[in-house]
Amino acid sequence: MDAKTRDDLLQLFQSKLNRAMTYYLETCTRCGVCTTACHVYQSMPQAKYIAAYRAEIVRRIYKKYFKGQGKVWPSYGEAKELTEMALEELYEAAYSCTGCRRCMVYCPFGIDTQMIMSIAKLLLVGAHAEPEILTLLADTSIEKGKSIEFFKEGFLQGVKNLEQQVVEKWKLEAEGKTVIPVDVEGADLLYVALAGAHSIIPAAAVFNAAGENWTLSFFEAVNFGAFVGDPTKTKLILDRIVNEAKRLKVKEVCICECGTAYRVMKQLSGKQPFEVSSVTEVHARYIREGRIKLDKSRFQGPVTYHDPCQIARNGGILEEPRYILQHLTDDYREMAPDPRYNYCCGGGGGLVALGEETLDFRMKSARVKAEQVQKTGAAILATACENCHTQLENLNHHYKLGMNVQFLTSMVADALVI
Amino acid sequence: MSNAIQADKVMDLKGLPCPMPVVKVSKGIKEVEVGQILEAQTTDPGSLTDFPAWARTSGNEIVDTIQENGVIRIFIKRNV
Ligand code: SF4
Ligand code: SF4
């Protein structure tokens, strides 16, 4: 690595050194409590998968360049130079961590390994050593934001074609209004979906059943800038939705079943003239207010729920999905340990988006998740995140769990009493 | 089905979860020669904005889009 590249990367490192990060980098006592907290280590007990070990790879570079001690005497405190080889280690550490933060809940000092890994990811982006496809996906989202006028017509036509499916399945007209409204100024709620029809059709059925004054976003909710750990791209992708919400003067931005999208919008959008909610919160509200009714007999067999890390542990939404499920089943089975300590599905941090490339690792590293799910004895495994759903489907197949993996939104839509 | 353009490779991307359509098409385009056509079939309206944005980003070109019977057929010319 040439000196200029190293300097540039160290500047990126420096940009991450706020108070919280410095605390995380300087505090670990190597007590080892986090060792078995990580699903990756529990499933594949190798030292490199211990949370504190991952963090140490970043910490050593910190010691070398940002701490007096390391600068003077590199062998003391295991300071380490930033080299091509160090980048490889950073890659392995960052892309075998799903950012679930289970380790943080166990650490007596609350050290956030996910946040430390965000340094690793940023250095990889700076060195052009990140997974190329994640950057391509992020750039695609940004390009969409720049030229939406150019793509608008096609999208509107595509959405029109879905409306018939909503009307046919739910026998539901939107009381003289458009079944899937797009670009409606003055709507109360902006729903930000994913590209897939499965993220739009059931949600549209529920909004219309609840008599919501809503409009569908032109943009997909997911933020690949966050997955790849690029703060500039994360912000550009986020701003597309913030600007659309302001232009339409909506009161609420409702994020579809996508954990990262929800966390990024909720925690990084700053103070705005609209509220941010997840579709799970909105559905719970509709039930509470009597705006929708659900038929409990629609789903047979015991049901369990996987808490997406970015929505539950990192987003605080724990009660709402359980409240919804009370209206969908009389046989709900909670996973053990309880939701705050829930295991990650094993697909976060961009691993699912990397597809086949990470499949083997995702299956092996989430063995404890498969066991946790199986122990509930449930027939239906519900969740509220696209990423988790894909990973859980993969686990279902790999470990032959024989479960019916469902989106919570789809269950609500399918159980609607019209 | 009308078929304005003869594709050199057809990919069925119907009903795939996010972000697999774009991930798969990024790989699929490398399996045709420069100048050849890849046809991506989806049912997701988001593809109608995602694919043109992806084409601009990756330097490829959408040469035609047909929506019929609920299926969206996107014809992509490999340029790079
Ligand atoms: S639990 Fe916290 S202090 Fe203990 S080794 Fe892990 S990160 Fe370090
Ligand atoms: S954030 Fe999750 S995956 Fe990463 S080290 Fe901690 S427990 Fe393991």
Automatic annotation (TrEMBL), chain A:
Q: Name one GO molecular function term.
A: oxidoreductase activity
Question: Could you tell me the keywords of this UniProt record?
Answer: 4Fe-4S, Electron transport, Iron, Iron-sulfur, Metal-binding, Transport
Domain 4Fe-4S ferredoxin-type: from-to ranges: 19-49, 87-118
Sorted alphabetically, which InterPro entries does this protein's record hold?
4Fe4S_Fe-S-bd, 4Fe4S_Fe_S_CS, Cys_rich_dom, Helical_ferredxn
- Check the record and name the PROSITE patterns matching this protein: 4FE4S_FER_1 (PS00198), 4FE4S_FER_2 (PS51379)
Name the source's superkingdom: Bacteria
Q: What is this protein called?
A: Fe-S oxidoreductase
The organism of origin for this protein: Desulfacinum infernum DSM 9756
UniProtKB/TrEMBL annotation, chain B:
Family per similarity comment:
Belongs to the sulfur carrier protein TusA family.
Give the residue range of the signal peptide.
none
Alphabetically ordered keywords of this record: Transferase
GO molecular function terms attached to this record: transferase activity
**InterPro entries (UniProt xref):** TusA-like (IPR001455), TusA-like_sf (IPR036868)
**Record keyword Transferase present:** yes
Name the Pfam families for this protein.
TusA
Show where the UPF0033 domain sits: 10-78
Q: What is this protein called?
A: TusA-related sulfurtransferase
